[in-house]
Amino acid sequence: MAIDNTLSPHGGELIERIAAPADAPHLVAGLPRLPVRDSIAREVINLAYGFFSPLDGFMVRSEVESVVKDMTLTSGLVWSIPIIFDISRQAMTDAGITQGSSVLLTYQDQALAVLEVTEAFSYDRESMDQHVYGTTEREHPGVLRTLGLEDTFLGGPVTLVNPPVINPPFDSFWKTPRQLRQRFAELDWATAVAHQTRNVPHVGHEWMMKGALLSSEADGILVSAVIGEKKPGDYIDEAIVLAHHRLRESGFFLPHIHETSTLMWDMRYAGPREAVFHAIVRKNLGCSHHMFGRDHAGVGSYYDTYAAHKVFETLPDLGIKSVLTLEWWYCPVCQSVAYEGICGHRDQKQDLAGTVIRKIIDGGQEPAATTLRSEILEIVKECADRYNAGSAFVTPEYMENRSPVFSLPTLDRCRCSEHQLV
């Protein structure tokens, strides 16, 4: 089926920067090596495969300034979150990295990508926090993240030289933007509504997806599960992905209208700014619609409950439509899951809050079909036993012992400088 023009990538072109296998060893020959942490490795992969189109690399200072203050790239195209590579000046000196040079980024002691250093610069991190998060309070996880960055940023294009191998159970669900667009064509989807999630789905989530699918009149729904930084108490990644897939396997969605995928992204909890970013990324994946509920990408009381709804009123057309949804709960009077925009028994509602679902999972009791499907509880328990010694929630042991989401093979005939940063 022909894809509608509204599904074109952000900026009109899907950016892909992956070296041909035969060229990769020559591209990295003689370059200084710079090991990168998990979060940078994930963003390199996202840049190289076009998840962040139209970006072709880490932002230079002018782009950071424009995004932070105006929520646009210097081209005027809407963009809401800075994509930056931080490094200390000492580390730059030790590795011999200068503006205009190239460096081989390594991960897991293997070659990953070449970064062409267009610019090395500093930026006022407090100003960045105030504009992006609306606060400079350390209690905000995004602010805390910024405060942990090094004092210098490197901007410039990246070229992936060693494509990652996605490990089970994520290998069945991770697809590049090009691969997802091909999958949509196989499913005969001309339109798709995206559901951003980092939770195991309760029945409220299920009905929120069904409501978005019906109201958007899209051909299918793409569950885009965020795989990234974790903190104690979060759901383990395996449970999130496999539980959403189980909804389809168990028939709660027809197989031709539901697809589960993963996105390697570290949440910033930037509220409305992050909602805009999520819409742009899902547009790059080929989605025509994106659903936004209450407190989307928010944290604590930093943002209005429906700030993610209101922000789109201030922006030009992004080429992806927002599906704005209110709250879903269980109503004992209606004796069913109910929608805030319809149900008249608000004073008797029973929230399908995360704490309620967590008690069911931790307690192991059989859930009511109006809160958590028994099929979902079953797969969550299986994931807990298999991947985290019986717990469905992130623990220090999980972070230390979990299998990596992706690995890098050895790059054949790589002739790189022996200099490694420590």
Question: What is the element layout, followed by pairings?
Answer:
Layout: H1 24-28, E1 33-35, H2 38-49, E2 57-58, H3 61-70, E3 85-87, H4 89-95, E4 102-107, E5 110-116, E6 119-121, H5 125-133, H6 141-147, E7 152-160, E8 165-166, H7 177-186, E9 192-197, H8 203-216, E10 220-227, H9 237-249, E11 258-264, H10 272-285, E12 289-292, H11 307-310, E13 321-324, E14 328-331, E15 336-339, E16 350-351, H12 354-363, H13 374-387, H14 396-401, E17 406-407
Parallel strand pairs: 1-4, 9-10, 9-12, 10-11, 12-13
Antiparallel strand pairs: 2-7, 3-7, 4-5, 5-7, 6-7, 8-17, 14-15, 14-16
Would you mind describing this structure in some detail?
There is one protein chain. The protein folds into 2 domains: 19-162, Roll (Sulfate adenylyltransferase); 172-401, HUPs (Rossmann fold, 3-Layer(aba) Sandwich). Helix content is 32%, strand content 18%. It has helices at residues 24-28, 38-49, 61-70, 89-95, 125-133, 141-147, 177-186, 203-216, 237-249, 272-285, 307-310, 354-363, 374-387, 396-401, and strands at residues 33-35, 57-58, 85-87, 102-107, 110-116, 119-121, 152-160, 165-166, 192-197, 220-227, 258-264, 289-292, 321-324, 328-331, 336-339, 350-351, 406-407. The relative contact order is 0.16. With 422 residues, it is α/β, with parallel strands linked by helices. Strands 1, 2, 3, 4, 5, 6 and 7 form a 7-stranded mixed beta sheet that branches. It has a 5-stranded parallel beta sheet with strand order 11-10-9-12-13, sandwiched between helices. A 3-stranded antiparallel beta sheet has the order 15-14-16, with helices on one face. Residues 1-6 and 413-422 have low confidence and may be disordered. The longest helix has 14 residues, at 203-216.
